[in-house]
Task: inverse folding
């Protein structure tokens, strides 16, 4: 029987499993990942406000894998011999006929002192740390910022940082202690969030001003100290620092014979094929793909890439030429705990809806809809 190995157990990996079975692929599917759980990070932004608990965002996958006749190997990928289709793991080598890389990206930790900041999108634990730190504070300065990969400017995840900024502002106002806190947003970009579109950036900056958020924009970062963010344009004294660095590929790529982009991600085409490596595919944040400069690193885009990759694997197994290309599409509801701002981009279309209460509830409804397949 044909063997398909899917590396990772996040959005792209699980969407690929579902799509392969929907395409009636009867191959042996093995998922390789360190945990048999899906961590639904989009909702971790609500943990500091108590709107979500960590345990509700960790979904066991054993039943999902059983339904789709998937074997799970609990292991971390350490390298790959792509030419021989051998995956190196800390539990031993795994061979397959078709390999889909969906291990996600990695946040760049080269900035001196980055360990002094909490990186929110590194996981649910980070959101729990923010909740604990915020609860213990009686006042002070919270500095929230983001940066990108200088070798691949699109490799970033900035949306959650705007959400944390607005959610913490809303939460502190609800608690009647906003006047005891100073909120500062920082970024090397003078107009952060440009992938969302110029209209969205204008709206975000206007919202910051409306909420009394100070900004420190357009200055290259130098280092982060335990109680200070240092940039070439000055310093920000802070009691709590949330920082989202740019992204690069997973560490194991250093031990793989795979072509990489300037930013350190797996180089792929519009069909999610890895360049010059037949039978090797990539979907989600681990890859670098052709497309517009605003193409996001987000779960929705990973799902679209995974569906295309799975369809192309199915076609290949039938002896057909792969032809499923993924759409570059950005869909984001930027939440502020009680309202949501919608941003949509596809082709030349760029829609921005101002913050509305129904959009907050729509984001919560989508969470329930999306997770139904795994609960």
Result:
């Amino acid at each position: 029987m044909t063997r398909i190995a899917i590396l990772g157990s996040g959005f792209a990996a699980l969407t690929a499993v579902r799509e392969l079975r929907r395409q009636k692929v009867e191959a042996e599917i093995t998922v390789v990942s360190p945990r048999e759980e899906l961590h639904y990070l989009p909702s971790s932004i609500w943990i500091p406000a108590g709107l979500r608990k960590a345990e509700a965002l960790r979904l066991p996958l054993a039943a999902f894998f059983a339904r789709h006749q998937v074997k799970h190997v609990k292991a971390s990928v350490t390298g790959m011999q792509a030419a021989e289709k051998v995956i190196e793991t800390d539990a031993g080598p795994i061979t397959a006929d078709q390999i889909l890389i969906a291990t996600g990206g990695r946040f760049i930790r080269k900035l001196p002192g980055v360990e002094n900041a909490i990186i929110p999108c590194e996981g649910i634990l980070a959101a729990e740390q923010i909740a604990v730190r915020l609860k213990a504070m009686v006042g002070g300065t919270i500095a929230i910022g983001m940066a990108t990969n200088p070798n691949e400017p699109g490799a970033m995840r900035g949306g959650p940082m705007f959400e944390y900024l607005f959610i913490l502002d809303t939460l502190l106002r609800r608690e009647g202690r906003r006047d005891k806190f100073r909120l500062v947003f920082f970024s090397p970009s003078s107009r952060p969030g440009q992938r969302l579109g110029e209209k969205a950036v204008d709206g975000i900056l206007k919202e910051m001003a409306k909420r009394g958020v100070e900004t420190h924009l357009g200055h290259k970062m130098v280092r982060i100290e335990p109680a200070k963010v240092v940039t070439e344009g000055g310093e920000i004294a802070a009691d709590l620092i949330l920082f989202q660095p740019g992204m690069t590929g997973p560490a194991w790529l250093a031990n793989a014979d795979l072509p990489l982009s300037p930013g350190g991600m797996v180089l792929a085409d519009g069909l999610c094929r890895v360049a010059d490596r037949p039978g090797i595919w990539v979907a989600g944040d681990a890859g670098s793909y052709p497309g517009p400069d605003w193409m996001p690193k987000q779960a929705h885009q990973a799902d679209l890439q995974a569906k295309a990759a799975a369809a192309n694997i199915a076609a290949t197994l039938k002896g057909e030429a792969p032809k499923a290309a993924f759409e570059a599409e950005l869909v984001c509801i930027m939440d502020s705990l009680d309202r949501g701002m919608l941003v949509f981009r596809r082709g030349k279309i760029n829609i921005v809806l101002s913050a509305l209460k129904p959009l907050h509830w729509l984001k919560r409804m989508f969470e329930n809809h999306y997770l139904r397949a795994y609960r």
